[in-house]
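Project channel, design review

CF: Before we commit to the Streptomyces solicavernae constructs, I'd like one complete example in the thread so the newer folks can see what an input/output pair looks like. Taking mevalonate kinase.
RD: sounds good, go ahead.
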Amino acid sequence: MHRARSIGSGSAHAKAILLGEHAVVYGAPAIALPVPQLTVTASAGWSPDTAHDQYDVLFTMTGSASRPLVTEASDRLGRLVTEVKAFLGVTESPHLDVIVDCAIPPGRGLGSSAACARAIVLALADLFGREMSQSAAYDLVQTAERVAHGRASGVDARAVGASAPMMFQSGEVHEPLIGCDGLFIIADSGDMGRTKDAVELLRAGFKEHAGAQEKFLRRASELTDEARRALAEGRPEKLGACLTDNHELLRAAGLSTGRIDALVEAALAAGSLGAKITGGGLGGCAIALTRMEQARQVTRRLHEAGATQTWAVPLKGRSHHAR
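CF: and here is what came back for mevalonate kinase:
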């Protein structure tokens, strides 16, 4: 077969949900934030090794956070490679080696599975010398996400390739106006989240209590829309209040944990404008909005409250820039 390159590469990054997790699965809006400092890089090449599995591909996972992904991801990623080859029209069955270097801790609601899938999709397209549109990459990553998580909204598949905060609803994306500066601090509770369990827990609650689903979705949508307006109008205090109120909504639904609640309380006590759980829930991370001058104190208090690691993601207003 024609080999366009000897090696192909692709990359993606983490994401954090600011508002709207879970509700987004039911068609409500969500706001997501790219976390560019947590990256995934995939390298794909031709393998001389014939001891491959049914997918003719061997995966090697590197990076301190990626090792637990090896066994659970191998089948899902093998199926993804098959999907990519079919999309690209690769009819041969070459043996492939794919190395995935992941800095995103798994099971934290930061999009590690979607980011790994996107990096692999782009690396294979590069290896085979084919163009891969954003929409095609999204569709392929979304296929892998459904295998990993069951019902997947698509927000992760979009956000791990986004270069700026984004609004997502029912597959549609647009970039919100950012009229204020600030700093988001993400704090890792150290506990693996359980997205599938959280989704089932929420669904069971909706079935058990009449009107619970409509009430949850209405409130989540209101908070996301209020946050969107606060972002555009340069009102960080209001944005922070929306985050905290969204946490209370998710906590009342049983999706938070004692460790996450402790992180949220610590961030607020240290002067954060708002804080909440982020991602699927039942573990994972909290996210806090703070002003730059409070960031040191907030970070210190988060670690004192049990955060195993933290990351700072700047929010920079662009309302005065050409769009």
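RD: helpful, thanks. The radius of gyration is 20 Å.
CF: Residues 106 and 112 are 6 Å apart (CA to CA).
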